[in-house]
Specification:
- The chain is α/β, with parallel strands linked by helices.
- It has two domains: 227 residues, Spore Coat Polysaccharide Biosynthesis Protein SpsA, Chain A, CATH 3.90.550; 71 residues.
- Helix content is 52%, strand content 12%.
- It has a seven-stranded mixed sheet, with helices on both faces.
- Helix 7 runs parallel beside helix 8 and helix 9 runs antiparallel to helix 10.
- It is elongated.
- 36% of the residues are buried.
Length: 320
């Protein structure tokens, strides 16, 4: 059983040493623990520091491509290196490395495909009261749309089984956290949460440069990802809203019609017709999108099979 801990990094030369030192090299049930650093076009000495620390693998993006893309690059590199379990942590030493054993335990016990570390944000002292509430509301929203029981949806401290890692397909260029939870829930993966510790803050978050902007992009990611997996439900809801809205001017017109005053209220009939037409068009779009989503699932299954064949080539002595 081989575990790879991947660390996406962008200018983390000062925090990477402690992050690497905190990662345990021996874990019960794991034969080998290796560390992979994914450098996202750093302009400081992150790569040199990683080499000095003796990490097992280094993957470099020529330019900065963002967290989501870097996460997927690391996931692919871990699978090519023969990982049975992949753990993702941050290069700023936010998460307690000693809790990696707790993180992988549900996978080792065949109880989960993906495990997310619950930071217990209510106890993090450097989080403001507003941020704690937003974290709680955000996680509740993700639980609702993903049909999972994830306590801390935006935690980047998470573990994936080999099969789960191969199934991950992140479309967003912003962050992978929300999208992978929804994807896991909608594809019926077993998702678990375990409480984990955090370390004192080492630097300001680069992902959350503005709270309103972060919320906006997170909500957009939730809507887009949910729509990819449940398009008919989303478009049917929107279409029915337009149809119901069209009933209001329709009833108004009928009221005056039966009162013998329909001549001056033709605008209500026109508005109702427009709303009905738009509503039914949206329903048709939903049907087409649902057919496309079926095709998408077939493509994902084909991609999974291709990945297994490719990874068998890189690791001929094991089964994917």
């Amino acid at each position: 059983m081989k575990l790879l801990v991947q660390i996406p990094c962008f200018n983390e030369e000062t925090t990477l040493p402690q992050t690497v030192r905190d990662i345990p090299r021996q874990i019960d049930g794991i034969d080998r623990v290796e560390i992979l650093v994914v450098d996202d076009g750093s302009t400081d000495g992150t790569v040199a520091v990683a080499r000095e620390l003796g990490v097992d693998h280094i993957v470099k993006n020529i330019c900065n491509k963002g967290l989501a893309t870097t996460f997927m690059v690391g996931l692919d590199a871990c699978l090519r290196a023969g990982a049975d379990i992949v753990v993702n942590t941050d290069g700023d030493n936010q998460y307690s490395g000693k809790d990696i054993a707790k993180l992988v335990a549900p996978i080792l016990n065949e109880e989960a495909d993906m495990v997310i570390g619950d930071r217990q944000t209510d106890t993090i002292t450097h989080f403001s009261g507003l941020k704690r509430k937003l974290q709680k509301w955000g996680s509740a929203s993700v639980r609702m749309v993903s049909d999972t029981d994830v306590a801390d949806a935006v935690s980047g401290f998470r573990a994936f089984s080999r099969d789960a890692a191969m199934r991950m397909n992140v479309i967003s260029r912003f962050t992978y956290t929300i999208e992978t939870v929804i994807q896991a829930g909608k594809t019926k993966m077993a998702v678990a949460s375990v409480p984990v510790g955090t370390n004192p803050k080492t630097r300001r978050s680069r992902l959350i440069d503005s709270m309103p902007r972060f919320i906006g992009r997170s909500v957009a990611t939730m809507i887009r990802t949910y729509t990819m997996y449940r398009p008919l439900k989303v478009f049917a809801f929107i279409g029915i809203l337009f149809i119901v809205a069209g009933l209001i001017p329709s009833l108004r017109f009928l009221f005056y019609f039966f009162m013998g005053e329909s001549g001056g209220h033709i605008q209500s009939l026109i508005l109702a017709a427009i709303l009905f037409i738009v509503g039914f068009q949206i329903l048709v779009i939903g049907l087409v999108a649902d057919i496309i989503s079926v095709n998408r699932r077939l493509i994902e299954e084909t991609l999974l099979r291709v990945k297994r064949i490719e990874l068998d080539h890189f690791n001929p002595n094991r089964n994917s």
